[in-house]
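Q: A reviewer asked whether we had any structural model of the full assembly, not just the individual parts. We don't, so I'm hoping you can provide one. Inputs are below.
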Amino acid sequence: MGIRWQHLAAWAVFIIFMLALPEFVSKGTLRTIIFANFLAIFAISWDVLSGRTGYISFGHPFLIGIGAYTSAILSYRFGFPIALSIPLAVVAAMIGGTLFFLPALRIRGSYFALVTLAFMELMYQLVQVIRPDITGGTRGISGVETITRGAVNNFYLSFCLMALVAFSMWLLMKSRLGTALSAIGMNEESVRGSGLDTTKLKLAAFMIAAFVAGLGGAFYVHYLGSIAPRALFDINFLFTIIVAALIGGASTIIGPMIGAFFLTFLLEYLRPVLPGAERYFIYGGIALILYMYQPKGIYEVAKQGWGRIQAARAGAGS
Amino acid sequence: MSGILRSAAAATALLFAVPAAYADIKVGFIGSLSSDTGLSTLRGAELAIEELNAAGGVLGGQKIELIKADTGEDVTEGIKAYEYLAETEEVDFIISGSIDDVSLGWLPRMVEYQIPTLDTWTSYIGIIDKLVEDYDSYKPYFMNIASDEALATLYIDFGKDVLADKMGWKSVVILQEDTAFGGAINGLVSEALAPNAGIEVVDTIVYDVATVDFAPLFSRAVDSGADFIYLISSVNSQVVSSQYVKLQVPMGMTGVNVAALGQEYWEDTGGAGGGISTLSPVPSVGFALDPASQAFVDKYVARYGDSRPKFPHFNGFNAYHGLKQAFAAAEEAGGFNNNSWVDAMEKQDLVLEKDGQMWLRYGFWGRDEVEPRTGRTYPHNARFDITDPYDDGAPSMVVIQWYEDGTSAVVYPEKYATGEFQVPSWVKK
Amino acid sequence: MSQIIIQGLLLSGLYALIAVGFTLIFSIGRVLNLAYGAYLMIGGYVYYHVTQVLDMPQLVGILLAVVFGCGVGVLKYTLLVKPLKGDHVAVEISTLILAVVIQAGIVLVFNDSSKILHPIVPGVWRVGGATVTFNILTAALASWAILIGLYLFVRNTHIGRAMQAVSMDTKGAAISGVDPDRINLITWGISGGLGAIAGVFFASYTQLNPSMWVAPLIIAVAVVIVGGIGSIIGTLIVAHIIGFMEIISTTLIAAELRGVFTMLLIIGVLVMRPRGLFGREEL
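A: Here is a predicted structure for the entire assembly that you could use as a starting point for your response.
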């Protein structure tokens, strides 16, 4: 699990390529990439928790939503500066993550997935019922302060955030913690048997996931400039996050990134061809077929393809 | 290896390729392409653009191209759609058939791009409030439907003239959905009903929009002993109204029921919708039309009569007339991308007459103009008239009713009425 | 009071019908079919199209709805569940994607406006301060009849006993000559049919709408969680707990908190008693 120079070189190439991108592509494309960046952050957060440990979270929008709502409410209703509201939002999301963690002490598998789904639904209903004068109720809040304006600035901001999250998660997952988390996903009992405290490990995974989700959610709302319960605590949003992580390749860092870019661009590039409702149908259909073809994701497909090319070349060479 | 690199480069180029199509003037449509609401606006705009192009184009003979961006009634998709129109298609003007939270979602983008935008469906006063607070940022925004706050005012008049004076009703139970819209309307109505119409609010029931079974709520309403139910429902409205009909609740029900605003209501409820009455923006179902609007409807039906919505909803009219006004303003101002368009648009004033009297008016409240009855300003909101005899514009809304035989009529105000307010046959008078 | 009991019984009957098909799959395969709500949607829309657009008799509508539901269930098993070889997570995710695809498909075919079904049996009955539509009464009675039928089927027929065996121990069942694959296929078919018929009744209560699959899924999830992987009887009991809780909270406490109570119950039970109130590892 060591860090090899090839990996760091790949990171450097990727980052330089992306930073140079605004020179070559249109602003409309940059806007699409911004959404892909945010989706990648959410998918990475989901993957740290669910892809590794096998505790499938159907409530990730709950964590993202807490981050987004906290920051939006603090800055819009109470005039907090963004520099203060975002850290507070991250803290709130981590508290939410602790709530999430409690059921994980006792239940796992499908039951855990269901309870997290219930968390999301509960939040959806509560946001509308409790203090709609603060949350904006069903209509949400519009006109939340944005950090910067324009496609290029927002592209840099979102990309830097995404790259930072992705790189630090990559480093973290290369550490012994990452190995232990993946081991929990494979067999929790044997990890416990080998003398590690699985509760602490799981708590770490939940806190990291909540931190990233809250951070992403808070920046996301200050990018969008508006927030509504239907946009966040929604099965379609959940669907996009999970599918991005899985279709790209769970238990990797590059996988969720590939998945996020693939899904966002797929939906956006279908727009001129299929303007109407067909678009969502085809989009979902492609996601389903891809997932059925290789549940391990595009990363795995590419790896196998690369392996086959290598094998063919080796065969031709001999 | 170089082959792989080259194809990768080609693939990258393909991935980021910009779909380029250059027309002279581009109009963007933002809304749902699979809802009656969105399609009404889209088709109204399509017909207006066709007419403008057929008449030799606009702004010195340029042709208009319409670009559609679907929101699927999803807030985030709405933001993406607005960005697509603004930055990929670089449209000059946007016409919207969005619902409340979708409009609120893309509004910060409009502030950023400053593209002239006309909203034809949402009537949320909160958007107009944003213009009052920060005019310079929001000024490219126009809403050519009367805001929901004015709607409540008309309802109070209806309560006094018809419900209290004619039906003799003295008390009401309010059945309100748990949404921001429901809360706002309830606040306005329940505050003004007692002092102005002499109708006392005896109970208020707030319900969850996902309620499956309304039987217990109607039981509570009946037990309250009120004379009638005032319903406020914009989400899943057909559920509550059809259960009212199916349960034959023995008291009258009126109010706001968004599902009943379109001509498809009868078909969609399979007839379980008789007796329902609701406030509706004009031109509503059952509304007698002036010749210009009638000509639009004839064209619409000939063109789209085979697919839903077979008859334009009110926002279809707003889009048709509003788009023409936007281009008239552009002609005066010499284009869309300057402040002069906003000034010219503010001054647009289309008066549609029927039988020699003012019937509908498409104009806007000026920035500082105070509406006499509510005593506040409504910058860039449709110019409505909430005082009898409605000689300054159309009333903000009318009250319509669906009868048990599937016909519908405007029942209030008097000037526009085509039928009478009735309680359903199962309600004892 | 009598009104709460009547309305509670009727709503609970509907909820039991909604949940039973979901429980069936969960008991046998231990997988969550997140596209379960789509059966209800498909059933409702098929019934609507047959009876209200094509003007055919109601019985034809119900039969076709069941046929479609079974068909989708069988297809789902053969095309999704079987290739994924019982990988729970993969099945859950793929059914979630499928549900979203079906929703988009419904929007495509029927447009996204809501539609109301004619009452299956028109008319009302006023009893003890409550108004009961014959439609709802029919739904509740049909639900009871179907549940009793299902119970007898599972207890007394060869296939039913095989289903019980698979639900207790798949490998053991396979050794004793039961083909788990065939039993699974049959169960998915039955579950689809039950879902579709529940959809007809659910839609006749509420409405048809492309996002209507979420609400019944949550009801089914609530019943499964609170009840645990339980018996058909357990489903029935828990459906009554949830149904009555809902009627009581809307009538006496606060109607707007209807959904909140259900969610709190789910979370509470899961944290306190992860196996549910009646958790038994058999059908």
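A: Points you may want to mention in the reply: Chain C has one domain: 2-272. The CA atoms of residues 38 and 213 of chain C lie 5 Å apart.
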